[in-house]
What we know:
There is one protein chain. The protein is α+β, with helices and mostly antiparallel strands and 284 residues long. The protein contains ten helices and nine strands. It folds into three domains: 22-163, Jelly Rolls, CATH 2.60.120.10; 176-219; 224-277, Homeodomain-like (Arc Repressor Mutant, subunit A, Orthogonal Bundle). The strands form two sheets. It has a five-stranded antiparallel sheet with strand order 1-2-9-4-7. The chain has a four-stranded antiparallel sheet with strand order 3-8-5-6. A hairpin with a 2-residue loop joins β5 and β6 (67-71). α4 (176-188) packs across α5, α4 (176-188) packs across α6 and α4 (176-188) packs parallel to α7 (222-239). Mean pLDDT is 87; it is low at 1-17. Keywords: DNA-binding, Transcription, Transcription regulation.
Amino acid sequence: MCDPFSNEPYPSARPLNERGDWVLRAPGELERLEAYFAGVAYAPHSHDTYALAWTLGGVQSFTYRGAARHSLAGRTLVLHPDEKHDGRAGTEIGFHYRVVYVAPEQIQLALGGKPLPFIEGGISEDPRLDRAVAALLREFDQPLEPLQGQDALFDLAVALDGASTTPSGQRKSFDYRAADLARQYLCDCLDQPIQLDDLEDVSGRNRWQLSRDFRLLFGTSPYRYLIMRRLDRAKGLMIRGESLAGIAIDCGFSDQSHMTRQFRKAYGMTPKQWLKTLGIALQK
């Protein structure tokens, strides 16, 4: 299996069908995964980040914005935040890929507060995006150095913006500072009940204007953003081996069932299935 941009072998790539479905996590703070799935990978779901992937082998098939898509080896996928999609093998040999998840706020740091870029169809035809995603996924076995990661994310934001097919008539009147204040407040209060009144107070913005701005700038609603940050925290605790029931309460969910429903909606699999792909034993 070779890197489609350099024709060099991937240092950690594994043969298709080596040992069934598997997922590897790259070291470092940025969430980067390499995975192989033989059949259905995950049910329809959506997350509040960009998902940027390379198909390394097989046919990576998925349904996106109401249409079936098929990515071959060497192609780059760009899935927009909060767009529902699934994942499955397009042929009997399964599919192998790498993916990086990039939060909209990381893109906004480079763009300075603009409507999020959108790539039509979910599969990139733009060489600028191919190069930008390659910079984040090629060196998979080592964490990205801080400056290296920051440079790569800046280049990605610029490439996304340049390749964006966002309609030119999209609303341009918004308050980035107010939306970001609300976002930071949500991150600081994960285990607390939050109402739109609270976000109005902290941002100084009318609740309905704020909700519209938040979706435009961060790709999802304030409530959905809060749920996803709770799930991020929950995943970290699961990897540490803590019990699901305790994690649910610690992360602001009403109970374990509530957390499991939200987890499946976000990732297309249950916590038990997710931990199994990582080779981690489930804690009751």
